């Protein structure tokens, strides 16, 4: 089978021919139909500090996809051959305390598809039955492939109720754009997005942002205070992983407000906590993956019932062999979600 691998300690990826993997008793074999590129896949491509510290090479990357089950192990009970599926990328042990109390997404022995195990940027992928999600047949293979990252955005936005709340989305990469659309669908009163790339600024407007601010061209704090009558926003969603954005986000947060942190920071971050968090009574949620599996049911409803129009989020598609062209678009910030076809 064809697959995209990270093999060397340098920038880039390689297209390889590998044997089709064999399954264990509790696993399924899936023929991949579509696979979308995550920010972490781009980090692995660029071989940044996080990727260097996290991966053991070689590994087939990728963890967002849709496909068809073509073989099931002898111990598999729920999943059948020909099921149309996607998958949770967090592979839990199912025996640690966190798993047993309903927090599989923060399993003590967590493995991640395409990072700790061979992933879905391939013609075939193996998965434990535990993480398989069966799709509605009406869902396109492209839309089905982005449910996993969409779930990140669902948990970031809906860590608490957002109905009638004012919201700032800091960073409009693909998951930030999803957050804008979800906040709109769930009744946010004002959505303020920040982004420095004009391509993604336009997408944010298209997906429902009421105001889109470029931090390189304005003082975000002053603009948000004008928009909110000096109250600040009820909710800050930090999606960028930029220390300056986080600092600004805490400043624009209203007293008693909520912050959700999804963006990953390359280096340690220094913050003024007294006035920005403690004396504000701020509530901070760290978002990792998706809650297994409540978030998937929310995602299925938002997408399947067309509460959120995700079509504008998928801006480019490529055959798997053209992954370099796709990664270069991401380099320039000139894309939303990109889908690869094996």
What is the share of helical residues? 25-40%
Return the CATH class of the largest domain.
Alpha Beta
* N-to-C CA distance: 9 Å
Structural class: alpha/beta
* Gyration radius from CA atoms, angstroms: 20 Å
Number of strands: 18
- For CATH, the homologous superfamily of the largest domain is named as Medium-chain alcohol dehydrogenases, catalytic domain
Mind summarizing the main beta sheet?
7 strands, mixed
Q: Name the average pLDDT.
A: 97
Assembly type of the chains comes to single chain
CATH architecture annotation name of the largest domain: Alpha-Beta Complex
- Catalogue the unreliable spans: none
**What is the approximate shape?**
globular
Total number of distinct structural domains: 2
What's the helix-strand series? EEEHHEEEEHEEEHHEHEHEHEHEHEHEHE
Number of helices: 12
| CATH topology (fold) name of the largest domain | Quinone Oxidoreductase, Chain A, domain 1
Topology:
Blueprint: E1 2-6, E2 14-17, E3 27-36, H1 39-46, H2 49-54, E4 59-60, E5 64-72, E6 84-87, E7 90-91, H3 97-100, E8 111-112, E9 124-128, E10 132-134, H4 141-145, H5 147-157, E11 166-170, H6 174-185, E12 190-194, H7 198-206, E13 211-213, H8 220-227, E14 233-238, H9 243-252, E15 253-261, H10 273-278, E16 283-286, H11 294-304, E17 314-319, H12 323-332, E18 337-341
Parallel strand pairs: 11-12, 11-14, 12-13, 14-15, 15-16, 17-18
Antiparallel strand pairs: 1-2, 1-4, 3-5, 3-9, 3-18, 5-6, 6-10, 7-8
Helix pairs in contact: 5-6, 5-11, 8-9
């Amino acid at each position: 089978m064809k697959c995209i691998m990270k093999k060397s300690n340098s920038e880039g990826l390689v297209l390889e021919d590998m044997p089709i993997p064999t399954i264990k008793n509790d696993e399924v074999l899936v023929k991949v139909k579509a696979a979308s590129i995550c920010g972490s896949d781009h980090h692995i491509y660029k071989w940044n500090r996080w990727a260097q510290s996290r991966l053991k090479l070689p590994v087939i990357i990728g963890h967002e996809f849709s496909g068809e089950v073509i073989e099931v192990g002898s111990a598999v009970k729920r999943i059948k051959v020909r099921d149309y599926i996607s998958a949770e990328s967090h592979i839990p042990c199912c025996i640690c305390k966190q798993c047993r109390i309903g927090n599989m997404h923060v399993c003590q022995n967590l493995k991640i598809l395409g990072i700790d195990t061979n992933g879905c940027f391939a013609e075939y992928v193996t998965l434990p039955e535990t993480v398989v999600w069966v799709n509605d047949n009406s869902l396109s293979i492209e839309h089905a492939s982005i449910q996993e990252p969409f779930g990140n955005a669902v948990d970031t936005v809906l860590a608490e109720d957002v109905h009638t709340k004012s919201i700032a989305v800091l960073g409009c990469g693909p998951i930030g754009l999803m957050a804008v659309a979800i906040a709109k669908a769930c009744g946010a009163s004002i959505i303020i997005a920040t982004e420095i790339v004009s391509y993604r600024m336009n997408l944010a407007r298209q997906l429902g942002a009421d105001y889109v601010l470029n931090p390189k061209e304005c003082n975000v704090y002053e603009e948000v205070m004008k928009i909110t009558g000096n109250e600040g926003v009820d909710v800050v969603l930090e999606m960028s992983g930029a220390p300056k954005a986080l600092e600004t986000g805490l400043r624009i947060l209203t007293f008693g407000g909520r912050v959700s942190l999804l963006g990953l920071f390359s280096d340690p971050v220094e913050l003024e906590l007294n006035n920005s968090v403690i004396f504000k009574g701020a509530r901070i949620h760290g978002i990792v993956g998706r809650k297994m599996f409540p978030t998937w049911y929310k995602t299925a409803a938002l997408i399947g019932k067309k509460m959120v129009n995700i079509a504008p989020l998928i801006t480019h598609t490529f055959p798997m062999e053209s992954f370099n062209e796709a990664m270069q678009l991401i380099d320039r910030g000139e894309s939303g979600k990109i889908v690869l076809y094996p």
